[in-house]
Amino acid sequence: MDPHEVLILSQQDVTALLPMQECIEVMAEALGALSRGEAHVPVRSMLAFPDGRGLLAVMPGLHPAAGAFGLKVVAVMQENEGTAFDSHQGAVLLFEARHGSLRAILDGSAVTAIRTAAVSAVATRVLARPDAGDLALLGSGVQASSHLEAMKLVRRLRRVRVWSRDVEHARRFATREGARHGLAIEPVPDAREAVAGADLVCTVTSSRTPVLAGAWLSPGVHVNAVGTALPTARELDTEAVRRARLFVDRRESAQHEAGEYLIPLAERAITPDHLRGELGDVLLGRVPGRTSAGEITVFKSLGLAIEDLAAAEHVNARARATGRGVRVELGGLRVTADARGPA
User: Fold this and answer.
1) 246: closest CA among 218, 273, 275, 267?
2) Which partner from 162, 270, 290, 298 sits 20 to 30 angstroms from 82, CA to CA?
3) Which is more confidently placed, 85 or 143?
4) Could you write out the DSSP letters of every residue in 99-162?
5) Are residues 97 and 133 in the same domain?
């Protein structure tokens, strides 16, 4: 590889080179590496807009075994919902670990959409009942679409319901995604109606207040709580968390960012040991996942840099093997007097 050469990979490139089924396996390996101590991920840094319209998050990570490190920079703009723009805008920067050379710049929206759902699929594979297939989607945006695809790969879906705060959005989602997947998707006007009797629930909204109540949950349900990553915001109420065995992608991140955990903890509805463990520990057999058919399990997803980096490394390797993407020279070598030319 030319040390100057940086590969630029668009949203279309990432989507083509990161199929959901492949990404699920990449995420399982990345989460296992994190729990084995082979990857390093500090808590993300976030800068909120003073008017509350959005925030900028910086997520660095290091995976020495893969010879890579880097970061994702993402702007989260909730007002983009219902527009032509994804709520998550940004890029993943992938470096090589020997000289620190920049190797690739990837569209962050596509990476986020695919890897987030793939992680939920990993959680579903190890925490949901084997016969789970009555899916409720709370939310009808980008993550609802990617989660439907991911859930369909790890469980046989026999029923799908979707709820959105905008009923028309739910209807359009049901029509579009039903045709895409060959499924009959039911748009429902009420979140409680969506989850009644469901054994698989994905909350993928931007809500800062609960959209899912614990009183609505049926015995044996598994919930993937995805939509928020702020200590003061949550999609699940206290009762939903109190009733469940709670798992996270990373304990330290949950202790700083997960409103689903921190708010019930502050209310003294739960204790710290209510957080059973990291998903990687379940994958490695260090922590038991589901222990009975009737218990409720919750996976709180926050999103980690190691997930972005693992996805980026996979896409970068495939792009270089297939010739996809745009190659540019951005430097990185020491500038000498000769290279600068005459004064």
Assistant:
1) 275
2) 298
3) 143
4) T--EEEEEEHHHHHHHHHHHHHHHHHHHHS-TT--EEEEE--SHHHHHHHHHHHHHS--SEEEE
5) no
CATH number at residue 185: 3.40.50.720
Range of the domain at 38: 5-111+305-340
Encode pLDDT of 11-69 as tens digits.
Answer: 999 999 999 999 999 999 999 999 999 999 998 888 888 887 888 989 999 988 777 79
Residue 210 lies in a domain: yes
What pTM, to 2 d.p., does this model score? 0.92
Query: Could you write out the DSSP letters of every residue in 9-70?
Result: E-HHHHHHHS-HHHHHHHHHHHHHHHHTT-SB-PPPEEEE-TTSSEEEEEEEEEEGGGTEEE
Tens-digit pLDDT profile for residues 304-315: 999 999 999 999
Q: H or E element: which one contains 7?
A: strand 5-9
Together in a domain, 251 and 321: no
Model confidence at 329: pLDDT above 90: no
Exposed (0-12), middle (13-18) or buried (19+): which is 167, by Cβ within 10 Å? middle
Domain-embedded: residue 310: yes
pLDDT value, residue 229 = 82
Q: In which band, very low, low, confident or very high, does the pLDDT at 193 lie, cut at 50, 70 and 90?
A: very high
Number of Cβ within a 10 Å radius of residue 161: 23
Write the CB contacts of 132 (distance below 8 Å, at least 6 apart in sequence): 124, 155, 199, 200, 220, 221, 222
